[in-house]
Specification:
Structural class: mainly alpha
Strand content: under 5%
Largest sheet: none
Distance between the termini: 40 Å
Oligomer: single chain
Order of helices and strands: HH
Helix content: over 70%
Number of strands: 0
Radius of gyration: 24 Å
């Protein structure tokens, strides 16, 4: 059995890069959501009028369209929040690393 290593190590740069990548995905999701919302919001639920076509839209199209738009908004919010948390975590570990180095040098960084 291999000897267990009790050290904890974090690649701070990789963690922060990952957070930036996640934030980029959030920006992309926000762009897609914004474009789709702007296109669909200008018509509201008026497509098809009041007749059979309008009733068909109300029954068959709008529930799925509204759910899809909500999904994109939720995805954007979720990915954005987690990207920020990953970046914050990288900052936290960076601060721990800096403090540890300072303390190991008697409070003075070399």
């Amino acid at each position: 059995m291999a000897e267990q290593d009790d050290t904890f190590s974090v690649d701070i740069d990789a963690l922060e890069r990952g957070g930036v990548d996640v934030k980029h995905l959030a920006t992309l999701a926000a762009s897609i959501y914004g474009d789709l919302f702007n296109l669909t919001d200008k018509y509201g639920h008026t497509l098809g009028g009041n007749g059979d076509v309008g009733k068909s839209f109300e029954t068959n199209y709008y529930p799925g369209a509204d759910a899809s738009l909500q999904f994109l908004k939720d995805l954007k919010d979720l990915v954005d929040a987690h990207g920020s948390k990953v970046i914050d975590l990288g900052d936290l570990f960076g601060n721990v690393d800096d403090t540890t180095i300072d303390e190991s040098h008697g409070g003075h960084r070399h």
